[in-house]
């Protein structure tokens, strides 16, 4: 993962007048990753920021495309060097957004999209007040639980942790500029496009 120190003369707010930072978040299992993939297929002009994580790759995931998969010690080093725009712990693993690549893309006038967890989204709102934040909601909590279980990727203990975390995250939805319910996939995708390109 190429990480370079940002020039001290460049503030985050100075970058934002050229491009725009978009934050997409929502509880685990809500479908934000699938929405993001479809959005990027339809709009290749968007820049998707690849996060770093300490978790192991899932089947089919590619280092540098889905995530930068790094060791805990490497992640801690990057945190110490302030190389992340935001970082957070989720379900026992750490996730972070590389700072330099995002700021470079915003400076070049791009719409930069982050798909991150609630804690990271709050950090972004503190450092980028003019970022546009979108929260993806499930049609119901029961439907969210069904989606998480249908993945068949987690232990019962991990599912319980994700569901508890999801309840807390859903309560924070009104902190975001836009809330979109992912009930019908195409409708949710069209709603995101309307927000970004209206």
TrEMBL record:
The keyword Cytoplasm applies. Keywords: ATP-binding, Cytoplasm, Kinase, Nucleotide-binding, Transferase. Its EC number is 2.7.4.8. ATP binds at residues 26-33. One of its GO terms (molecular function) is ATP binding. It comes from the Bacteria. SUPFAM superfamilies: P-loop containing nucleoside triphosphate hydrolases. Pfam families: Guanylate_kin. It is an enzyme of class 2 (transferase). Residues 19-197 form the Guanylate kinase-like domain. It catalyses: GMP + ATP = GDP + ADP. It is found in: Cytoplasm. GO terms for cellular component: cytosol. The keyword Transferase applies. Its main location: cytoplasm. PROSITE patterns: GUANYLATE_KINASE_1, GUANYLATE_KINASE_2. Belongs to the guanylate kinase family. PANTHER family: GUANYLATE KINASE, GUANYLATE KINASE-RELATED. Essential for recycling GMP and indirectly, cGMP. NCBIfam families: guanyl_kin. This is Guanylate kinase.
